[in-house]
Amino acid sequence: MPSINSYIKQSWRLLRQNRLAALLSILGTALAICMIMVFVILFIANTAAFKPESHRADTYYVTYVKTEGKADGRRIAMTGLGLPFIKECFYPLQSAEAVTAVVRDIWQKQILLSMDGRNTVTASILETDTAFWHVYNFDFVTGNPFSKATFESGLHEAVISEKVARSIFGTEQVVGKELKINFQVYRVCGVVKDVSRFADKAWADVWIPYTAGTHLFYNMEGIGGSFECYMLLKKGHNREDLRQELLKRIDNFNAGLSDVQANILHQPFSHLEKWMGGENSEVSVGKVFLRFGVIAFIILLVPALNISGIILAWTRKRIPEFALRQAYGATRQRIMSQVLLENLLVTLIGGLLGFILSYVALACMSDWLMITSLGQEQLSLQMVNGWVFIAVFILCLLLNLLSAVFPAWKATRQQISEALNS
Question: What residues form the membrane-spanning segments (predicted)?
Fold first, then answer.
């Protein structure tokens, strides 16, 4: 009984004898896996949980509010949330583990200066509260978030990223040191590891208390303002619990207003809904997944069918070989095992090549593949899901095996004389 090692050597010799067919099969498998991997890696980077957005599945967002007339329901404005509205309706939510209010201006960077004015950097500032550090899971290199007392007093303290710390101070060990943000002096209370721009809700270069910022204005009887609200769901509650409680609080808030009322429409949105376009309308996640599934299936099916055609033609060409081996005593099981091993070898080589090519493609085409709403970004290992590669690899293997095993099985069922003449 031949060993596995001899089977592999024999399979390798056969592949070398049929170099064109083997090369086309390997490249076809590699390209199929590469295309799907690029597609899925980008999806995972935008939707899967990774630090600091470790709770994406349980985080819900309200990022705008519609202010409308009480009498006619006519829209007056569509804006961010006002702080009175947040304090009355969001902060007291019982179905949320934590609620954070943030002000993010992604289009306007601010100037950071060292105290001597020698080092300057432009940075994105996120103004927030102490609950922010509970909703998001940051890795602190040194120091801590600003405290509740600091927040309530409106003191000028800041958490900065490693990149900012190195640019301004030349080191990450800067807790207690001061810097200027738009010429206002801030004391550094903590330094965090740089955050991927794919974590677009937590991402910034500098985090400061919104009580020390400049965005506390509000309008429309407290409804409108510059804030967004992110809510971490409490265990034992679901999204509908959160929404119904929020709507009740909004109704109570509206009852105290004179001419206008707040309407959050279909919000709060999940992270997945936000990414899929929930900013503007109610989204059907099922329909979006179906659309992505059809696209992925087509991307995979076209090269897979071509590969299958090549392998089918290659296997049919070898039917006389199978018959001759049977004539010399080879069993059906041995022939089928050889075919399976050959195709496993082809798929394995193609799969590994496709896996490497997917990252080469992401690196070479990062100018348009790796762009988020906040700018260009690189991938982190936390965003890579090996199960995706395994699933695509198994699918390619099944297609390849079906293309090869059926003709081989059919050949071994034929009479030897008939197979030799085919």
Answer: 20-45, 289-315, 344-371, 386-409
> How far separated are the first and last CA of the chain, in Å rounded?
29
- Give the residue from 386, 403, 297 showing the smallest Cα distance to 347: 403
Structure tokens given for 281: 């309308």
Q: 3-state class of 133 per DSSP?
A: helix
Q: Which element (helix H / strand E) includes 255? A: helix 239-255
| Model confidence, pTM | 0.75
Q: DSSP character for 212? A: G
Q: Is the peptide bond before 268 cis (omega within 30 degrees of 0)?
A: yes
Nearest-5° Cα angle at 97, 96 to 100: 80
Per-residue tokens: 184: 């206002």
* pLDDT tens across the length of the chain (422 residues): 455 566 566 656 666 666 776 777 777 777 777 777 777 777 777 787 888 999 998 999 999 999 998 887 777 888 999 999 999 999 999 999 999 999 987 667 888 999 988 899 999 999 999 999 999 999 999 999 999 999 999 999 999 999 999 999 999 999 999 999 988 999 999 999 998 888 889 999 999 999 997 777 777 888 999 999 999 999 999 999 999 999 999 999 999 988 899 999 989 998 888 877 655 545 566 666 677 777 767 766 666 666 666 666 666 676 777 777 767 777 777 777 777 777 777 777 777 787 788 777 767 765 555 555 555 555 555 555 566 667 766 766 676 666 666 666 665 666 655 555 65
CB atoms within 10 A of CB 2: 11
Write the single-letter amino acid at 184.
Q
Burial code (b: 16+ CB inside 10 Å, e: under 16) for 113-122 equals bbeeeeeebe
Neighbours of 131 (CB within 10 A): 21
